[in-house]
Amino acid sequence: MIERNHFEEGPTPRPHQPWIETPLVESTVLSKIAGCRIFLKLENLQPSSSFKSRGIGNLMLQSIADREAESFSRSTDTNRPLHFYSSSGGNAGLACVTAATSLGYASSVVVPLNTDDATIAKLRAAGATEVLSHGDSWFFADQYLRETIIPAAEARGEQGVYIHPFDHPAIWAGAGTMVEEISRQMPCGERPDAIVCSVGGGGLFSGIMHGVDRVGWGNDVCVLPVETRGADSLAQSLQQGQLVTLKGITSVATSLGAIRVAENAFVQAQRPNVTPVVLDDAEACAACWRFLDDERMLVEPACGASIALAYAGRLKHYLKDIAPGSKVVIVVCGGSKISLDVLNKYKDTYSERSEELAKQYV
Fold it and tell me: Which GO BP terms sit in this record (predicted)?
């Protein structure tokens, strides 16, 4: 667990960490295409198949630690069972369920009504105690969870713990551990010139900014937070100079579908080393099928948005001083909301459009 010391001298042994150290690999193929050195941080290899395992896992460890510390300080044991609750139509819920199962706790997820059957099946297969459907979007699913489900659980005698998908300091600290790994994994102790990451609610981006400060890189490393048009709450907020709430999500990259970005992400994005990027759905989807061909990895469009910068000269467009020796880390954030059938449908839909968009970077 990050930035907490409850388990150093606690009443019970510290639980295991529900995320892993992931590889950082230099991609020969993408480096040649991008015209610089491309390093891939393979967060798609996390237990939940996405970076969410880090931040949500860390928040859950903190919740367990707080409970144990409270029990220990009072010299009593609480008999109320701990139960984790998440609201998510995909990766955050899966990270919560995967971590809770590995730690030996119950977990429930409330998903929006438009969540596909495959995602619900994955949540149940991962060990969810219950998967409930409510509301037309994550906002309403989350509201229902906080105002109805958790109070009902408390009334039954449970200790319900709310796990936010992205907006919590423990989540940012957990996500930031990948930067500490990158600092150890970069060849010859070098630092990257830039880090590319996708942005939905802003948990990953906030974690990256937290991490670059922790390792002492500060504003010396450029960070490119990438959104897709139709899920670009961060970019629109920066354009208007205040937090913006989108009317809805129209992008196919639904894992980036937070109608309002976390305030911390909005603040961090105003730092001088941050260059926000907004791409079209077609660009994100095209990156997914090209990445499958080039690296034999299947990722969803929310991840493809970041990978897209390695293709068609996009990095040179957004980083004017990029050179063959420049080192760029792309966070392969992964994601579970993809299959080969779905990817083929994206290819049929967006192939022509993606080729048109690629010409603007040449």
Answer: gluconeogenesis; isoleucine biosynthetic process; L-serine catabolic process; L-threonine catabolic process
Q: Does residue 202 share a domain with residue 142? A: no
Looking at the structure, do residues 78 and 172 belong to the same domain, yes or no?
no
Q: What is the pLDDT of residue 258?
A: 84
* pLDDT reading at 162 higher than 80: yes
Which of 114, 138, 163 is the last residue in one of the domains?
163
Report residue 281 as tokens. Answer: 């759905």
Q: For the whole prediction, is pTM greater than 0.90?
A: yes
Domain, as residue range, for 256 = 24-50+168-361
| Inside any domain, residue 230 | yes
Exposed, middle or buried by CB within 10 Å (0-12, 13-18, 19+), for 169?
middle
Residues 224 and 323 in one domain: yes
Is the per-residue pLDDT at 10 higher than 60?
A: no
In this prediction, residues 94-109 reach a mean pLDDT of 95
Residues 149 and 188 in one domain: no
Q: Would you state the pLDDT for residue 71?
A: 63
CB-facing half-sphere around the CA of 276: CA atoms within 13 A: 22
End position of a domain, from candidates 163, 198, 225: 163
Residue 256 domain-assigned? yes
Number of domains in the chain: 2
- Helix/strand/coil (H, E, C) string of the chain? CCCCCCCCCCCCCCCCCCCCCCCEEEEHHHHHHHCCEEEEEEHHHCCCCECHHHHHHHHHHHHHHHHHHHHHHCCCCCCCCEEEEEECCCHHHHHHHHHHHHHCCEEEEEECCCCCHHHHHHHHHCCCCEEEECCCCHHHHHHHHHHHHHHHHHHCCCEEEEECCCCCHHHHHHHHHHHHHHHHHCHHHCCCCEEEEECCCCHHHHHHHHHHHHCCCCCCCEEEEEEECCCCHHHHHHHHCCCCCCCCCCCCCHHHCCCCCCHHHHHHCCCCCECCEEECHHHHHHHHHHHHHHHCCCCCHHHHHHHHHHCCCHHHHHCCCCCCCCEEEEEECECCCCCHHHHHHHHHHHHHHHHHHHHHHC
